[in-house]
Amino acid sequence: MCWVLLILVTTHLFSQQPTKPTSGEIYKAIERLNFLGNALYVAAHPDDENTRLISHLVNGVNAHTTYLSLTRGDGGQNLIGPEIEELLGVIRTQELLQARKIDGGNQMFSRANDFGYSKNAEETISIWDNELVKNDVVWAIRKTRPDVIINRFDHRTSGTTHGHHTASAMLAHELFEKAADPKAYQDQLKYVEPWKASRLFFNVSWFFFGSQEAFNKADKSHLMSFEVGSYYPLLGKSNTEISALSRSKHKCQGFGNTGSRGNQSEYLELLKGSKPTDQENLFEGINTTWTRVEGGEAIGVVLGQVQQQFDFLHPEKSIPDLLKAQSLIEGLKDKFWRDRKLKEINDIILHCLGLYAECIASSHTAVRGEQIKADIEVVKRLPGQVTLKRIALLPMGKDTLVMKALGDNETYLQSYLYTIPSDAWYTNAYWLNERGSLGMYKVDQMEWIGMPETPRQLNVQFDFEIEGKMLSIVRPIAYKFNSPEDGETYRPFEITPEVSVSFPEKVVVFGDQYPRKVTVNVKAGAPGQKGKVRLPVKNGWKVSPAYFDFDIAEKNAEQRFEFEISPPNESGELTLQAEAEVGSRIYNKQMITIAYDHIPTQLVYMPAETRLVRLDIKKAGNRLAYIPGAGDEVANSLRQIGYLVDEIEAKNIRLDQLMKYDALIMGVRAYNTNEDLKFKQKEILAYAEQGGNVIVQYNTNSRLTVGANLGPYPIKIGRERVTVETAPVRFLAPDHEVLNYPNKITAKDFDGWVQERGLYFASEWDPAYTPILSCNDPGEDARDGGMLIARHGEGHFIYTGYSWFRQLPSGVAGAYRIFANMVSLGKDIKP
Ligand SMILES: [Zn+2]
Fold first, then answer.
1. What pLDDT does residue 437 have?
2. Which of 58, 101, 176, 499 has the largest CB neighbor count within 10 A?
3. What is the pTM of this model?
4. Cα–Cα distance for residue pair 798/456, rounded to 1 Å
C-alpha cells in the first residue's frame, strides 16, 4: 500500500460518529449496493427539498440520491436563536445533513449565497455570479452522474415564487445538455467526466396550484404519478414517516412535521428525455443492474446470492461472498462505480462483523504543531477471522504494525501521541474562509466546491485482514465526551488558529462625543501565547492605548482588554478589525461557537470586527422592558445607546411591574413563539392605556397566538415585504410626533439599511391606527402597513414590520433615531 497517496485521503465529518445499523438496515444497504442508478434533486434552499420523494428514491427505489441546494439558507430568519446570515447558513447546512442522515440522501451545495428574498429569477441571477453558479451545477451533475434530475420548482414561472427557486430550476433545465459537453467547463475534467442524465422532471405539487383542492381538480393527465406512502418493514417505518422525521430537522425554520401513514401520490412532469410507460418507474429503460458496468455481471451474480441467502441473525455468514464481490469491484475499470461501490461494500462487510473502529482525540480542538493523545478502540462483535494489521494516523503521524488477531467481542485499545502537522488546514466552514461577495462565497479549492462541510484531513486508517483479504478503512479523528445529561456525546475535532480575537459587541454606538470603552478578548488555542493586541483606527477616530501585551499560559483561556475609543465630532462610522500579533503572525479572526442539541457543535472563524457608529441622537424615556421572541439582538442594541433594558419572560409580565417602564417592546415573532403572551395580552394593552408605549415588531399571521387581538383595535398582518433595502421611504404622516421628536427624521435616516426594509407588514387596520411610513419594491404597490401607531388611552400601541432586528445590530444610524422616537412617544426629555 502506498502511503504517499493516502495523504490525499480526506473524509467527511458527517460520518464521524460510527453508524450502528441493525440487520434490517444492513440488508437495505445490500439492496442499494445492488442498484446502480442515481438521482439528483435540485432546489435553492435548505427546506425546499421534498423529503418524501428523496426518501422514496433512497429507501423505495434504492437509488443513490443527492439533494443539490444552491444556497445554504443564510438569508432567512432563525426561530431558535440569534444567529443570522453566515452563521445561520452554517446551522442550516448541519440541519440538512441531519435530515439526510434520516432519509439516506446525500447533500451538495453551490457557491451561491442566499442574499435574502428576491422576487424573480432575473434579479437573482444578476446578484449571483451566473457563470460560477452554472459551473457548480454542472459540477454537481458530473460528480453525481444522475440518471434522473428532478427540479423542485418550475423553470417557466419566474416571478411567482422566490427568485432563487425559479433560478435553480432554470439552471438545471439549461445545463442538462451542457454537462455532457466536453468543451464546457473543461477545467472540471481533471476530476470528473462529462455526463448526460436521461430524464429531467419537474416535481409538481399542490402548492403551485394555490390549494390542495385546486390541485385535485386540475388536469393531471400529462403527469407521471406514483405511490410514495409505502411501508418499509426492514426500517419499521412508512416512507412518509421517514420524510417527516427528516423534515423535522429543519428546526431553525420551525418545520417540525408529524408523520402520516397510508397511500400518498407524488407527481412529476417530464421536461426532457423519454416518458416512462410504467408510471411507477422513473428509471425505466435505464440499466440499473450490475451489468451496467463493464465487468459488473459477475458481481451482480455474487451479490444476488448475498441478498438471497442473507441471515438476519448471522449477517457474518455473508462475509465470504461479500469478500468475493469486493475483489471483483476492486478490479472494475470504471472509477466512478468502483469508488462508490467499494465504499459501500466495505462498510457492509464491517457491519456484518459488528466491527467497531474509532479514534478519539483528547481535546475537541488542537492547533498546528500541538501534540494530542489519540485513543483507538477496535472491537469485532461477531464471529469471523479478522486481524488488525496496521493503524496509521494520517496524514503524517504514527504508522504502527499491529498484527493483532481480533477475538470475538474482545476490545482492542491503544493510545498514541500525535503531533498535528504544521501545514494542517483549519477546519472552519471552508466557504467562509475568505470574504465573498453579496451573491457568492469564495472557494479557492476546486475539489471542495459542492461539499457540505470542510473535509477532514486528520484521519486514522485501519488495515484489516478479513478471512485472508485486505480491507482498509479511513475514519476521521473524532472527539467525544460523556455528558451527565445526554451520555455519550460527539463533537467535531477541530484544528483552530493559535490565537483568536473577538469583540463582545458587534456594534459600538456613540450617542455623543464622549469616549467609550471597547472590549477585546484574546483567546489562546494552545498554551503559551504571547504578543500584542491592537485596534487600528482612522478617519478621526482615536484609540488609547496603542496596544496591550498579552501572555496567556493555558489553552482555551482568554484575556480581556479595554481600549478607550473617542469618536469624531460629526456623525460617522468605522469598521474596526482587531489584530493580535504573535511573532511574525497576525491573527484577526474570532471564533464563534454554535451549540444546539440537534446538530453537532460548530466552531466558525470569521473576521473579528466591530462597527463604530457615531450618532446624532436624542432620547426621551429611559427604562425599557423587552419580551424575547424568536431571538434577536435588539435589547443589546438599545442598551448601547444608554437605555436600561430588562428582559422579561412573557409568563412573568405583571401590569404593576410594567408601569415603571417607558416602553414595552416585543421581540421579533414574540406572538408566534410564545404561548404565554396570549394570557398576558389584557395586561399589555392596559399598560398602553395607562401611558405606556407598546412596540410590537414583526410577527407572521399564521401561528399568531393572540389571533385577531394583536392590538387594541383590529389589525391584520399580511405577507407584504419590501426586500430592496434601498427602496425609497415616503412619509405618510410627516407631522406625527414619531417623525419629529426628539429626533427630526429625514430621508437620510433610511440610508445604509441592510438586507431589506421590512417584512410581514400589516395588510388591514382599523382607522384608529395612523400609517406613518410607506415604501415598496420596484414595480409593486405601496406598502403602507410597516409602521402603524394608535393612541390608546394615555399611551401608544405600535405595530412595525420594519426590520429593526437587522438594522440595529448592524449599527444603522437612522434606525436608532427612529426607534428612539418610538420609545419617546408622549415622554419628556429629562434634563
Ligand atoms: Zn426556498
1. 92
2. 499
3. 0.83
4. 51
